[in-house]
Amino acid sequence: MSTKKLFAALLALMMVVTSLAGCANNKGTSSTESSTPATSETSSKKEVSSEAGTDEEYPTISTMVICGSIPADADKVAEELSKITREKIGVNVEFVMIEVANVATQLNLLLSGGDDTLDVYMAGVSVPYSTVVNNGQALALDDLMKPYEADMKAALGENVYEAGRVDGNLYGIGHLLDQASTAAYNLRADIATEFGYKNGDKVDLAELTELFSKIKAKYPDTPLIGPMNGGPNIGDSRIDQLGNKLGVLEDYGQTTTVTNYYESEGYKELVGYFKQWSEMGAYMPDLLNVADAPVDFIPSGKAFGNFAGHFSAEMNGIWSSQNFGTEIASLQIYDDAVAVTPWGYDCINPASKNPEKAAAYINLMATDSDAVNLIINGIQNEHYTLKDDNTATYVEGKNVSTTGWAMGYSWTALNSTLSYPFEYPTDYYQQLKDANKNAHQSKAFGCQFDLTSVSDAVSACTNVVNQYENALASGSVTDFEGTLAQFQQGLKDAGIDTIIAAKQQQLDAFLASK
Amino acid sequence: MEKTIQPKSQKPKKVNRFTKDLPLYALMIPGLLYLLLNNYLPMFGLSFAFKKINYSVGIFKSPWVGFDNFKYLFQTKDAFIIFRNTLLYNLAFIVLGTVLAIVVAILLSQVRAKSLRVYQTSILLPFLLSSAVISYLAFAFLSVDNGFINNSILEPLGMKDISWYSSPQYWPVILTVIYLWKSFGYSSILYYATLVGIDDSYYEAAVIDGASTWQQIKHITLPCLKTTIITLVVIHLGRMFYSDFGLFYQVPMNNGLLYNTTNTIDTYVYRGLLQLNDIGRSSAAGFMQSILGFILVMGANIITRKVDKDSALF
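^ inputs. structure came back:
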């Protein structure tokens, strides 16, 4: 009798242990399973093969796709893309959909465990490229990319391709993006017209301030500056931020001396304007805590505008008019911009079982317009329709929240210039390329900084910047000069000079190797 | 007694009992296993604190770096602020939280059984809210142009609006109030459970002797609660160097202007390492917090044992 009991107890124990083990297995892939049920290897392999016929012999490449919220038709688009990839490079593709707000946590988890759930991923959104390289989370690509090098360089541009080099080795392929961002002020178009401005006009800070005071005189009760992406978001297009703004190249990146931006004349001038704008009541009250999107406050007249960044103020106005729910005129603040090292990179997970195929996939995403367009705009006549002028738009009756594919994330693609512009003018991507070419080219273009040796100072300085920068830029302080002095002193105490020295040394080495 | 007389016959009997109870012991195995897997196995992660993690070679082969990962916690003058904030807030939370919880538990024990459930549920509700929800509840009170306090309290009284989110001096009070509001329901129920167990005959005897309610509380209720109070306080001391991340990050809305009074060890580490994704350094912070907490718990327990042996935790 008692042996029977013992046996029962052991059985119960085994059940507990196996269920625990099951938990551990699921954890790593749960994020992907929720979105793409066909990715769980054990349970659904059969389904996949029955769906797609003879694809069993092809290996599968899983790739990270960034979206706002997980779209309904992810599997459908992946299957459509697999049709192209099976024919051209002999692989199936599956998507690991990651919501843009969760990239930092999910990507880190996917890359930590030596897990091969993810083959190709994008570094640069929340997780900087230098971090993944430094953590050993990206495979060295020089040999893998050899067969495609010439094509890729032709498609992306040599400087973008080469920008992924760290210590002479290529760990990621730079995205062809808007490398030269310019600061712009979005103003409700009817107000702009009233005061003699139109979309795309250039102003400088002094002229903008004058415009503010004119508008304020006529509409004293309406603030002029609301939030964008949860902050004041006013950039400075005169500097190359060298990644994190701790140590920058001033003068549109035309100098080779790394300096402290927050001590510069340009920043001091900007803070002076923050003060003026604050005194005239241009800021929305409590700007730092207002989580409203522009569509919530600009059409309703709660505020007349906000700041944004884009390679072209004119295009920014077009984009904003579609997204803010009212016509917007976007005014360019600085007269020029500087083209800097790309921030987005396609990398291969070192745990990938098919690195060669992953490299072929990256090449496809840089050179094949069908594949690129599919991943950006979805399936034709299902997610987008093509207009006569070769630009894409929503299919009848659909919008950003009802369509089945993640629209509006072309900026996460390796080479979006091969896709149809979505609700932009026909020459949108030509303009983007021109803007990259015509902007000042930073002297540090392609230099990847490795700040591991000064990471204590970086984390301390990051805390100081978080404390003061947005507080100043949102006009939330009362004593601007005093706060600026505290800010500068805080950075000094936190060791910004060691960061600047480290960047300078690496920049010098980079320039010497060129 | 038996033992000293017949030590030899006792032994085989003991073994017998063990084999007889073996199935019962086996029932303990899942629990032990869980404890081992959940609480002891992760302790090998403590070694992360002394490594420079490199994912391509794996955690075990990553190089050792000694105490390098701890340096950033003490490097700047922020170190003083974050340690001060963490300790002072926790001190306030322990003292005020315990007092409030006991008061509420005693009040609960006085109300009629019918309405008890309503009270219990309503005071427990805040404990179940997530910090993101609480942060917006707080925002509804404190917002400059639409906030309840500015619009419905200060203005009718003819006082000037206060810009709460740019005035760090108010936040120690705000955060303490929010913490107490959130947590008092849960801890008062712990005390209430002990209160229910006190024998009614004590109170009856006291009433016959003419003791007032206050005297009953002072001489019966509180002494009976002593062990529970000590246990809960000592457990809380173990978390003295931790802070409720949601409370200190979400509720002040990560506002830079408030860092002086809202920055704690956890929020500092989070803000500083978010981009670097350096698990060595973040483990170092956690390591330090748990070691200091461990020392505090042991210390507090030793002191308790010296003063009153029966009340000590172990």
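Residues 68-115+165-311 of chain B form a domain with the MetI-like fold fold (CATH 1.10.3720.10). The longest helix of chain B spans residues 7-40.
thumbs up if we can close this ticket
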